[in-house]
Amino acid sequence: MDQWLCNVQVNGTLQDVHLLNGVIHRMVPAGSVSGWDAREMLMLPLFKDAHVHLDKAFPDQTWISRRRVTSLFEQFQMEKHLLAEIRTSQKERARAILQDMLENGTSSLRVHVDIDPEIGLSHLAMVQELQAEYQGILTMEIVAFPQQGLLRSHAAPLIEQAMQAGASIVGGVDPAGVDLDIERCLKTIFDISTAYDAEVDIHLHDPGHLGLFTIKRIMAYTEQYGKQGQVTVSHAYCLGEVSAQESLETAKQLAELDIAIVTSVPIDSAMPRIEQLTEAGVRVALGSDHTGLDAWTPFGFTDLLQRARRLADMHRWHDDARLRSVFTYLGSTASSFRVGDSADFSLVRALNCEHAAAIAPPREIVCIRGVPVAGRQRHLAWHSEQNKPNIEERFQ
Ligand SMILES: [Zn+2]
Fold first, then answer.
1. Which residues form the Amidohydrolase domain (predicted)?
2. C-alpha 359 – ligand 1 centre gap (Å)
3. What separation in Å is there between the alpha carbon of 263 and the centre of ligand 1?
4. If you count Cβ atoms within 10 Å of the first and of the last residue's Cβ in the chain, which end, N or C, has fewer?
5. What is the CATH number of domain 47-329?
6. How many Å lie between the centroid of ligand 1 and the Cα of residue 119?
7. How far apart are CA 128 and CA 237, in angstroms?
């Protein structure tokens, strides 16, 4: 693969970019050479989705009605019911989500896979098949996730089996609200994660001080088990519900233990104080959680740039620095392409990366290792001979 892209906005200036053997080989001022004309499109990094489910999607073609629920447990039950009725084509639906993510410039994702005694490891097997199918295009981490409660559904032995079968992260959900035993739940999670030298990623919806207390216990276990840098708390609504001072104190401790916080930027509940956490040194990342229609919501979507735009809009990040900062929550900075980097990027129509954060324009071309693989104008992209047949096959 040997291709010049001309007139590309990259790192704040207009350049001609040489792609060679899957990497950015050279960058020179625009007008220096001839090649495929990008017409001043902006080069953006590809995104990492830090929290997504591939095994919960409803079909796009059929409306499946949800009913009102009054508790999380009713919701769990409704989801199991509805999913059981549409078990067919789960893999096709998951594949459609992956394709949608790729079209939106996401190339890396952390997938939470449901595991419980009724479905066993069947969802894991399905996701692993897709992981193999998309190898070389999408990077997928798999969390063994006991959606019905680790203790509540007696899922611990299955989570161990999932780790043996190739999941790489131990999941959990509301040690208090769902499992009703914070200590035993966390001990089980950290024991398994230690036995398999794995990371931990816990869904925490528990509100207010119950959630905050759970975070304090997660911090204690992280320290006790020496899991610094390997623990994530997903959602953590409670950090947006307790006082700013309490949140700040917790943020400092989270930073010390290098515990990450992941949010889907909810608009229907409190959310962690992102700026405060970031300033305290906590790693914060965005995840889609819901990707479209599912049992939880009809409002899911996979476009992380839209989610980042929502983050900036909700927090009135109107200044350039904070608009630019949204890209750090998607796994990268916007203007840090260097010679020698893998040629992974998307091209969009925007004045600059601040503008892109503000309008979340469509991804015109999504490119992985120099090969255009997705995007609204992929058919107009340069043609790359190396790897092309392989990738064409995969996406037909
Ligand atoms: Zn989730």
1. 90-315
2. 26
3. 10
4. C
5. 3.20.20.140
6. 18
7. 30
C-alpha of residue 344 to centroid of ligand 1, in Å: 27
Query: Which residue, 347, 351, 299, 355, is CA-closest to 326?
Result: 355
Q: For 48-121, where are the alpha helices, taking DSSP H only?
A: 72-85, 90-103
The answer as to CATH 3.80.10.10 being correct for domain 2-45+334-394 is: no
In angstroms, the CA 134 to CA 98 distance is 9
DSSP of 148-184: T-TTTTT-HHHHHHHHHTT--EEEEE-TTTTTS-HHH
User: Running along the chain, 396 residues long, what does each successive block of 10 average in pLDDT?
Assistant: 94 96 96 95 98 90 89 88 81 94 98 96 97 96 97 97 98 98 98 98 97 98 98 98 98 98 95 98 97 88 97 97 96 89 97 97 97 94 57 41
Residue 230 is encoded by which pair of tokens?
């390997």
Give 173 Cα–ligand 1 centroid separation in angstroms. 9
Helices (H) and strands (E) in the chain, counts: 12, 16
CA 236 – ligand 1 centroid, Å: 11
Cα of 304 vs centre of ligand 1, distance in Å, is 15
Q: Where are the domains of the chain?
A: 2-45+334-394, 47-329
Rounded to two decimals, what is the model's pTM? 0.93
Euclidean distance between CA atoms 248 and 250, whole angstroms: 5
47-329 matches 2-45+334-394 in CATH topology: no
